[in-house]
Amino acid sequence: MHDPLASLGLLALAVFATIIAHGRGLLVRMGIEAVLLLAIGTYLLWRGSSPLPHLGSGSSGLADAWLRALVVVWWLVGARLVVNVIVFVRGRDQKSREARLFSDLASAIIYITAIWIILNSVLDLNVQGLLVTSGVIAIVLGLALQNTLADVFCGLAIGLEQPFHVGDRISIGDSVEGVIVQMNWRSLRIHTDDDDIATVPNSLVAKGLIVNRSVPTRHRVATVETVAPAEVAPETILDLIWQATLLCPSILSVPAPSITLCRTDLVSNTYAARFSVSDSSIVAAAKSSLLRQVRRLFRYGGIGRPHPMSVGELLRSLTLFEALSQEEVDRLARDLIVQSVSPGDTIFEQEAISSSIYVIEAGVLELSRESGQSGSRVLGRIGAGEYIGELGLITGSPRSFTLKALTHGKALELPGAALAKLLHSNAALNAEMERSVRKGLAQIHRDDAARDVAPTDQPADLFAQIRMFFRV
């Protein structure tokens, strides 16, 4: 005789074990399910039955009902254990764990198979007849859900081919570009550069042109076109555009930018700058920065102007000297010392005494600092229309960086004595000059160098030194 209390106790144990396993780690759940599966299977074999189809000895009455319940539990626990094993095996690959499409598909197949066995072999229900009867319903549902089914099967095809993974940056045609944050049965969720979440059906993904921006690297190549007057020698324009790429920190030096003349006519020439950046998200910013630098270098190079920019005009265009009159600017221009530089020439060395301000008339110069065991570190670059050295001149501290030329160019040296003499004769300029120095601290591409030159962390002390310098 079969004792129904033993079966009831195992059923209660199964319910209790399921509650205990809920919320636990995957390995803990797998261990509890394996022990429960072994216990129920051992009990069934001991009672002369088996959970496998058509192998158990049938019984009748209440005992048979309890045994059937145990077999149902055995199949459900077994299906759950197999699903967890699949999740554990695929979970070792981070991308496979995030792309849950195949794990969900395998789980669905396992559960459907287990339920079919339970209905057909354990509970002796005529599943085949039920399937035939529901054929018409299946056809109707298939027609109603054809778009959803298309997304599902396209998702399966994408999962088999694996052209991308969660975390990759992709573009789909000309409509969507961004980083994949989720892949599921029906669609992709893409985090765009506009900080939106775009949901794209898998059927559209499968039909569209997919470009994976993360493979083999996240580097992105971009092109910017510039128009210049035809009367200017192409060599001059090519050199200025190349200098502009050197002044854009986001443009990679390897591979080197490529500057070409792509179109020409009687009035103007069109030039193309092809460059690389580290990530697609900064392409727009890199293009904008390059165009601004090209425009600035064209201005200081005299491109598109009726005559080249004079030294006086160069000084008047600088923030530091915008408060000076034309006569005062001319006096400063007469005191300038012109230095023609070639690539590799040193303008001044680190730890040198600060005695002059340098205004860049042409070319690109690089600021670097030697820092012990770590070697030389690049702080930044400056080009035509920028200046350096005013804070060190005012505070009297040694240079904290080395200034070297990257290209051919000209640097205009303004001795500190000439500036002090000019300001001494016009005390009303002190406040204006202090304001200019404040603006110079925030000037683009010079923040790091400005902080390095300043020997004090207290702005009040710094500007007290500025006022003292101006009133010498």
Automatic annotation (TrEMBL):
Q: Where are the transmembrane segments?
A: 6-23, 30-46, 66-89, 101-119
SUPFAM superfamilies attached to this UniProt entry: cAMP-binding domain-like (SSF51206), Mechanosensitive channel protein MscS (YggB), transmembrane region (SSF82861), Sm-like ribonucleoproteins (SSF50182)
Q: How does it sit in the membrane?
A: Multi-pass membrane protein
Hey, what's the signal peptide range on this chain?
A: none
Report if keyword Cell cycle is assigned: no
Q: Which Gene3D superfamilies match?
A: 1.10.287.1260, 2.30.30.60, Jelly Rolls (2.60.120.10)
A GO cellular component annotation here is: plasma membrane
Matches recorded under InterPro entries = cNMP-bd_dom, cNMP-bd_dom_sf, LSM_dom_sf, MscS_archaea/bacteria_type, MscS_beta-dom_sf, MscS_channel_2nd, MscS_channel_TM-2, RmlC-like_jellyroll
Q: Cyclic nucleotide-binding domain: from which residue to which, for each copy? A: 320-423
Q: Where in the cell is it found?
A: Cell inner membrane; Membrane
MF terms from GO for this chain are: mechanosensitive monoatomic ion channel activity
Q: What are the record keywords, sorted?
A: Cell inner membrane, Cell membrane, Ion channel, Ion transport, Membrane, Transmembrane, Transmembrane helix, Transport
**Domain of life of the source:** Bacteria
Similarity section: Belongs to the MscS (TC 1.A.23) family.
Q: Please give the subunit comment from the record.
A: Homoheptamer.
> Any idea what job this protein has?
Mechanosensitive channel that participates in the regulation of osmotic pressure changes within the cell, opening in response to stretch forces in the membrane lipid bilayer, without the need for other proteins. Contributes to normal resistance to hypoosmotic shock. Forms an ion channel of 1.0 nanosiemens conductance with a slight preference for anions.
- Protein name according to UniProt: Small-conductance mechanosensitive channel
Q: What is the species of this protein?
A: Enhydrobacter aerosaccus
